[in-house]
Design brief:
Length: 274
């Protein structure tokens, strides 16, 4: 049996945590509970290089007992590297546009950071793509990411990359576990009757087209974050989606069920066995 744990949206800096202490506590838990893989689906820090260092040190601490892989969320993208630089092969544990086959199984873990194409803003048909982009740059953290192109074109590149990855997995007769940061399924999006800000933000949550692609290839499991709402694993059109981000535990935005980060991390850790 292979044991896999998945987390997202730890936001260690926003949550004002001692990253060194958290690393030791998470490493101890993963080792004690004999996890084979630990996947981080984005938003570890507001700086990619800090996330990169954390993952490197966690892998060193785990000494190969648990293998750690990660992708970048939009918060990771804000500092450290530009968006074009994040498309490169940076380190073995960075799974964006890459995959890892699980030995002695027919499973493959595929990673892609993802992006968005405004397809979740269906209740705002009057808003143009240019207006969504201006709103993003004025009000959303993504406006600080350096080297961005046009959102719809960027998302189309993501879709092309993912389709190539899924085609290759299909040819290799692999079952797929897919990790991304942005939301791939409209079933998880909610609309507000009186909060235009939230309805505009839906445009930046992800892409319905990614979900359609994953379902067309009958991906086994999909892990994602970004939207700070927790759900039990949900199967839609044959694909099981997992979303249970840790989220924020700060005074202004307290999304935790407890007051303790490690309690939240353990309770939101998605665990599957194959």
């Amino acid at each position: 049996m292979i044991k896999i744990g998945v987390t997202s949206d730890n936001h260690l800096d926003v949550n004002r945590l001692d990253a060194t202490l958290i690393l030791e506590q998470q490493a101890a838990y993963l080792k004690t509970n004999k996890f084979d893989y630990y996947l981080i689906a984005g938003d570890q820090f507001n700086n990619f290089q800090k996330t990169q260092t954390f993952v490197t040190q966690l892998n060193e601490r785990l000494q190969g007992q648990t293998q750690v892989y990660f992708i970048a969320g939009n918060h990771d993208m804000v500092n450290g590297l530009t968006y074009p630089e994040l498309q490169q092969t940076i380190m073995p544990a960075y799974l964006h546009q890459k995959y890892v086959d699980i030995p002695e199984t027919d499973y493959r873990i595929i990673g892609n950071n993802g992006w968005y194409d405004y397809s979740f803003a269906t209740n705002l048909p009057e808003v143009t793509a240019a207006e969504f982009t201006r709103w993003r740059n004025a009000y959303w953290i993504d406006g600080g990411i350096k080297g961005l192109g046009e959102d719809l074109a960027m998302m189309q590149t993501v879709l092309n990359e993912v389709q190539q990855q899924l085609n290759a997995a299909q040819l290799a007769h692999k079952k797929v576990l897919f990790m991304t940061h942005f939301v791939p399924q409209p079933a998880f999006i909610f609309f507000s009757l009186d909060r235009r800000y939230w309805n505009m933000a839906n445009a930046l949550m992800g892409s319905a087209h990614l979900g359609q692609l994953l379902e067309a290839y009958q991906v086994q499991h999909v892990f994602f974050g970004h939207l700070h709402v927790r759900h039990q694993p949900t199967t839609i059109n044959g694909v099981t989606y997992h979303m249970a981000p840790v989220g924020y535990g700060i005074k202004r935005l307290h999304e935790w069920a407890s007051q303790d980060f490690m309690t939240e991390w353990r309770q939101t850790l998605q665990v599957i066995a194959i």
